[in-house]
Amino acid sequence: MSRFLLRLNLRRCVASQIRMASDQLGELGKGAGKGGGGGGSVREAGGAFGKKQVAEEEWYFRQKEKEQMEALRKHHAEEIEHHKKEIERLQKEIDRHKGKIRKLKHDD
């Protein structure tokens, strides 16, 4: 699971760097040769549709990032709960062993 999350974080980091680098070229969705670069026929055409496509793509990536963050939070919450249960189980084992030691001391 951690390998999967690491891979997602790496992809997100690379994607955000690409988007940041493309922002430096000019406004996305302006069309080819106008600072927007290529990216498909809609983007190359420029205009309102190109800008709309850029906005939709940005929204999509933000939504994906939110979903990934929520999954990561859920995973950590589950891990915490698992460890708490494990601590309780081990504490019961410790108490059981202490009881056996007390019993052995009384038998002497």
From TrEMBL:
Name this protein carries in UniProt: ATPase inhibitor, mitochondrial
Chief location:
mitochondrion
According to the UniProt entry, the coiled-coil residues are 66-107
Write the record's keywords in alphabetical order, separated by commas. Coiled coil, Mitochondrion, Transit peptide
Q: Which Pfam families match?
A: IATP
Gene Ontology biological process terms, A to Z: erythrocyte differentiation; heme biosynthetic process; optokinetic behavior; regulation of neuroinflammatory response; visual perception
Q: How does it assemble?
A: Homodimer; represents the active form and is present at a pH value below 6.5. Homotetramer; represents the inactive form and is present at a pH value above 7.0.
The organism encoding this protein is Seriola dumerili (Greater amberjack)
UniProt entry tagged with the keyword Transit peptide: yes
